[in-house]
Design goal:
Length: 435
């Protein structure tokens, strides 16, 4: 899409949003059905409760990260670095190196990757910056708009199934799957929880499904990245096998494999970016759209979309420092354990009654059954804002990576001291110490 074909869209001219989410609002572009504006907010959401905290400055930081990363992904040199990193990795099996370089990577080395991202709006003029940052960075990114179809629920002998036939008949749509790439296994990951609930034979089968060569352990990096897939437009996201995902996608097998390779390659691009500032990427999620045989990276991408950490050795322990939403989850679990327990009790009641979880929680809180949602300590929110801002500085490029790396470590240490000063160090260590 050429710059000359793009409209100027002042934020004040956008009107009412067509969608209001917990952390993002979407707007139509006047006169352009093929475009959409995404507004990021300061709001944060955990445990499916909705927006319950605000991180100052995170709106611009998120929008900037998305704009800068997607812009990078459109350039062939980004993928040349990815290829070189894959070739140089001594732990990757030779067959994996050979296979991952075939198909999408060959195209991206010539043309860059296709994404739905168009650019960022200038906060004053409304001009869409497709290269570099606008004179006044904003919270508004412009993206290409793809049709979203949802599977139809069909009754089936007293239960139900989902009909994905429409995806096999369409040429342009958002693929109804979420793809998660894992370079390692974190302590609280869904795959580890599922693995722990299985029998020995079930574990072996699950290892084979994920492509593991040894038993799964927490905080373990893998010899090669693995991926798992979940449904996207059913009432609850659920893990699906590769075979089921292929049928749900509406794609032919070769095209489906291309999308999976793009998932892994996109994860590698982010991994390299974070590695430069001392952060370890454990996992990241992607969504894709298809347009008559061409595939596009779509949806949000920011620090809530992946798990990045570093390690800190202190008090005879090796602690995980979080640079993603896990830090907020830990805060509520440790500092406001009574509230967190109430949330879990409300979820159990909702599952039994069929009443929406948020409604059960709200009514229970009003009746004094569970604690009201607490206000987050401003000092803790300030630490999260600093993390986001430092990562934003790095992804923009041109800065001193050594200084950013050191500053990120300092913020992580300050977060540990936040807990220590409140007598909660042992609880933090229990949740984040690596055995």
């Amino acid at each position: 899409m050429s710059q000359t074909s793009l409209p100027s869209v002042r934020p004040s001219e956008l009107g009412k949003p067509i969608y209001v989410g917990s952390v993002q609002h979407l707007y139509a572009v006047p006169g352009r059905d093929d475009l959409m504006v995404c507004e990021t907010t300061n709001a944060g959401s955990v445990f499916d409760v909705g927006s319950i905290f605000d991180i100052p400055g995170s709106d611009v930081a998120r929008a900037t990260f998305r704009h800068a990363l997607y812009t990078r992904m459109g350039k062939p040199e980004t993928w040349a670095k990815v290829r070189d990193a894959i070739v140089a990795d001594p732990d990757l099996p030779a067959y994996f190196k050979e296979d991952i370089q075939k198909g999408p990577l060959e195209t991206m080395l010539r043309e860059g990757a296709k994404t739905h991202h168009v650019g960022m709006l200038d906060g004053d003029t409304g001009v869409i910056a497709t290269e570099g940052m606008p004179a006044k960075p904003s919270t508004y990114n412009v993206v290409r708009r793809f049709p979203i179809m949802k599977p139809v629920q069909k009754t089936f002998l007293g239960t139900y199934v989902y009909d994905y036939a429409m995806f096999h008949q369409a040429g342009t749509y958002v693929i109804p799957l979420e793809s998660i790439v894992r370079f390692g296994i974190t302590g609280g990951s869904s795959v580890l929880k599922k693995y722990g609930s299985l029998t020995d034979s079930g574990k072996r089968a699950y290892e084979a499904e994920l492509g593991l060569t040894k038993p799964m352990q927490a905080w373990q990096f893998l010899e090669k990245p693995i991926f798992d897939l979940t449904s996207k437009h059913e009432p609850e996201d659920r893990n699906v096998s590769k075979q089921e995902a292929l049928l749900m996608s509406g794609l032919e097998a070769e095209a489906f494999v291309s999308v999976i390779k793009m998932t892994i390659l996109g994860a590698w691009a982010v991994r390299q970016l974070l590695d430069e500032i001392g952060l370890l990427l454990w996992d990241i999620k992607w969504e894709f759209a298809v347009d008559n045989g061409d595939f596009y990276y779509v949806d949000t991408i920011d620090t809530d979309s992946f798990r990045a950490t570093s390690f800190l050795e202190t008090d005879g322990k090796k602690l995980v420092l979080h640079y993603n939403k896990q830090a907020m989850r830990d805060y509520y679990k440790i500092v406001h354990a009574d509230w967190f327990n109430g949330v879990n009790e409300a979820k159990k009641e909702a599952n039994k009654s069929g009443v929406p979880f948020k409604q059960v929680l709200k009514e229970g809180q009003a009746a004094g059954k569970w604690p009201n949602t607490p206000v987050v300590d401003p000092e803790f929110l300030g630490l999260q804002a600093k993390k986001m801002d430092l990562i934003r500085q790095h992804v923009l490029g041109g800065g001193d990576t050594a200084k950013v790396k050191a500053a990120l470590k300092d913020v992580g240490v300050a977060e540990v001291e936040f807990y220590r000063a409140r007598g909660l160090f042992d609880e933090y260590a229990k949740a984040n110490a690596v055995a």
